[in-house]
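dumping this here before i forget
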Amino acid sequence: MLNKMTSTERRASASLASIMSLRMLGLFMILPVFSLYTSHLQNATPLLIGFAMGVYGLTQGIFQIPFGMLSDQFGRRKIITFGLLIFIVGSIIAARTDTIQGMMIGRALQGTGAVGSTIIAMMADFTREEQRTKAMAIAGMTIGMSFALAMMLGPLFANWINIFWLAAIFGAFAIVLLFTWVPKPLAAVWHADTEPELTQFSTLLKEPELLRLNAGIFILHAVLTASFVILPLTLQQLAGLQGKQQWLLYLPTLLLAFILSIPFIILAEKHRQIKPYFLGAILTLGMAELLLWFFAHNLLLSAVGLLLFFTAFSLLEAFLPSLVSRTAPRSRKGTALGIYSCSQFLGIFVGGWISGWLYGAFGLTDVYLFCVILLGLWLAIAFNMKKPHYPQNN
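structure:
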């Protein structure tokens, strides 16, 4: 029985993953339509649009660990509720504003409600150590599915409703789930494998293998954000696909990318060959950006580039947290994952900010070249990575 999750563990994992998913849906659905939407706001410039896109990553990175620490003192449920309320307020401000400055404030507040680490900590409270990997896998899969669903539904729903109002509704529904579906904990528990320790930050920041992986997640999300600052605009202005029709491109490419990525993940794990698949995914992502750069006027080849992009992105999103978990010392895993999350959010901020500047200074398609350069740097960094550790009994 010890190798099976209890009903409480299953309920806690599913409910908390659903809360995380609702919040992520609210953030991700705006991604494929954000630049089209904000280009009509007062005082909008490419630089400010890019900053507004990425600023939530900056506030996410700043507040993740403080919120987790506050939850130790005041309780997980209270802090998650507080963070979701801030997220809702930010979404409402973004929905109601008609200026780019108001949008930046709204997006910053969306990120300030940084409860991801607190939700993970609460999930750990309900799960035994031998079941915690399953719980975290459920959370990771849910986030991945949320991203794919959001990318498909965002352009479609944007035809009928302001996406930021949907984000506020999702946030409110998440609070309802928090108080109706999530079990009540019997007692507060501290878990060395999921809680960050500030005293270990310096040591783990300098650990070479973790440094490669943190640089990787930073670059991956910088590329993601930079690409989607300009992709909706290039599809509309250069390839002739209007914003209201872009979901017709995202839907099949995402579904096919999901189908293509699963066999590669299975093969990489089965044959213990994550490294070659990992490097191949980085190379594929670079090829996708090259296609989007060279053939921005060609809708068919842009679709091929987008398919390669989503396939490679799905692989890398699956490999990276697994590699961090395997590389980090067991007693410092929470700290390592905290640094990893901060790197991810800072990548979102830098990608949005730099792409906005490049778009204004040089033009739309040169942002793709910036992404190609970043991915070339990542490939060089990752090339000498060590093979990941595997349990001896596998």
